[in-house]
């Protein structure tokens, strides 16, 4: 019957878009052409070919208006029956020709009821039976299609309500089922990520709230003692003042860390890169840490395979990143732990900084969360006084410099941070 070819030619435009002289055809449209052994040719407003797929060599690449009209009325020629149509929703005139490799009539069959009545009973029976069978077939197809569409609708509803059961990807709706299964998988993954993020966010808020209250309690207590009595000696007053100052500094650090990580995340933090001699920069940074009374007795070493290497960095920010990682290694490991900082250059002139220790290590479960803004590790028995933002800030700063940071660790064997940045960013 001629209905399918005509309907296919009329509906092919749903797979095409023609805007700003750019023609786009979905893969499913080309796939249908290949399945049915058809060819297609797109013609612009000047009658020139702009795209063709499977087109025979004996068809031209340019047509006049009269030739297109003649072609649309033509019958089976040169081994093909062709149908001519146009893209109605395009901003410019665009026609397309689809060729079917068989003889197809282009005319609708009409019949006269009186002539049917005059037909023999057998012929009338055959005609009526044919229409009856056709009606039953159409009705059956409608029920079948309704069931398939109902399955798709139910699947979409199941995804939105998180009750979806994956469908078998077979039949003519296999591509639809495949997309539904993928959508459900993506939605469930996003839900898991959101739940984990919300969980660690709540945990972090609880921790930061507790950490802020911890220094505020002695500040308030010793301040009340100083305010309620004037009988303290100067030494006692000085001792209380130092306690208050130490806790104020700790509170200020927590607040500054929180502010900094969000400024880095939003891109509002001042970034002032300068060409720096990195080897000397790291040596001075390590000397400052060693001179800190809190770490003066710790085993910290530095080594380099090059006399000097340079990089375009923000000294204050980069110092903060490296310092956070080193102090993290010192804080979360026993006093006898060795921390080794090394620097080297590769053949691409990238700078690699390694910070490794032989301490307690980090569990495999903790590694994926290590740089999370809301995460605080559990590798030490004592509660850390940090904000839980040190490594998150370090990662943000390294990435701001166009670099990358990775970590590897094994329980009982230590941890290694690897930082790589371009020698000179342009």
Structure overview:
- This protein is of the alpha+beta class and 426 residues long.
- It is built from ten helices and 13 strands.
- The protein has helices at residues 3-11, 27-36, 65-73, 113-118, 121-160, 174-228, 234-266, 278-290, 315-331, 390-400; strands spanning 16-19, 22-25, 39-44, 49-53, 81-86, 94-100, 274-277, 299-304, 310-313, 338-345, 350-357, 404-410, 414-422.
- A hairpin with a 3-residue loop joins strand 12 (404-410) and strand 13 (414-422).
- The model is unreliable at 108-112 (pLDDT under 50).
Give the SSE layout.
Blueprint: H1 3-11, E1 16-19, E2 22-25, H2 27-36, E3 39-44, E4 49-53, H3 65-73, E5 81-86, E6 94-100, H4 113-118, H5 121-160, H6 174-228, H7 234-266, E7 274-277, H8 278-290, E8 299-304, E9 310-313, H9 315-331, E10 338-345, E11 350-357, H10 390-400, E12 404-410, E13 414-422
Parallel strand pairs: 8-10
Antiparallel strand pairs: 1-2, 3-4, 3-6, 5-6, 7-9, 10-11, 11-13, 12-13
Helix pairs in contact: 5-6, 6-7, 7-10, 8-9, 9-10
């Amino acid at each position: 019957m001629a209905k399918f070819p005509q309907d296919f030619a009329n509906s092919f435009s749903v797979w095409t878009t023609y805007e700003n002289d750019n023609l786009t055809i979905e893969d499913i449209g080309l796939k249908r052409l290949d399945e049915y052994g058809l060819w297609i040719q797109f013609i612009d407003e000047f009658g020139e070919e702009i795209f063709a797929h499977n087109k025979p060599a004996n068809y031209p690449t340019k047509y006049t208006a009269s030739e297109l009209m003649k072609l649309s009325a033509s019958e089976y020629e040169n081994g093909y029956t062709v149908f001519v149509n146009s893209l109605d929703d395009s901003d410019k005139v665009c026609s397309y020709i689809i060729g079917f490799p068989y003889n197809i009539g282009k005319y609708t069959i009409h019949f006269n009821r009186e002539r049917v009545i005059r037909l023999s009973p057998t012929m009338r029976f055959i005609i009526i039976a044919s229409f009856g069978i056709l009606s039953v077939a159409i009705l059956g197809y409608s029920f079948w299609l309704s069931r398939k569409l109902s399955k798709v609708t139910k699947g979409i509803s199941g995804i939105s309500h998180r009750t979806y059961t994956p469908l078998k990807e077979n039949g003519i709706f296999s591509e639809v089922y495949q997309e539904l299964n993928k959508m459900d998988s993506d939605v469930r993954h996003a839900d898991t990520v959101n739940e984990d993020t919300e969980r660690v966010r709540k945990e972090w808020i609880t921790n930061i709230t507790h950490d802020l209250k911890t220094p505020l309690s002695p500040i308030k207590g010793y301040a009340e003692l100083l305010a309620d009595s004037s009988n303290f000696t100067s030494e006692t007053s000085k001792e209380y003042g130092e306690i208050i100052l130490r806790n104020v500094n700790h509170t200020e650090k927590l607040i500054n860390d929180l502010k900094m990580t969000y400024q880095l995340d939003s891109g509002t933090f001042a970034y002032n890169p300068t060409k720096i001699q990195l080897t000397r920069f790291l040596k001075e940074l390590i000397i400052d840490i060693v001179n800190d009374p809190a770490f003066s007795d710790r085993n910290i070493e530095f080594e380099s395979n090059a006399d000097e290497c340079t990089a375009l960095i923000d000294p204050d920010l980069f110092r903060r990143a490296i310092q956070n990682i080193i102090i993290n290694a010192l804080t979360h490991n026993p006093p006898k732990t060795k921390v080794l900082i090394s620097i080297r250059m590769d053949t691409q002139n990238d700078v690699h900084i390694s910070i490794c220790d032989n301490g307690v290590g980090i569990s495999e479960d903790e590694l994926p969360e290590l740089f999370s803004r809301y995460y605080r590790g559990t590798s030490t028995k004592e509660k850390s006084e940090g904000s839980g933002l040190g490594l998150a800030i370090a990662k943000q700063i390294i990435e701001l410099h166009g670099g990358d940071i990775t970590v590897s660790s094994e329980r009982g064997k230590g941890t290694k941070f690897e930082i790589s940045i371009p020698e000179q960013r342009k």
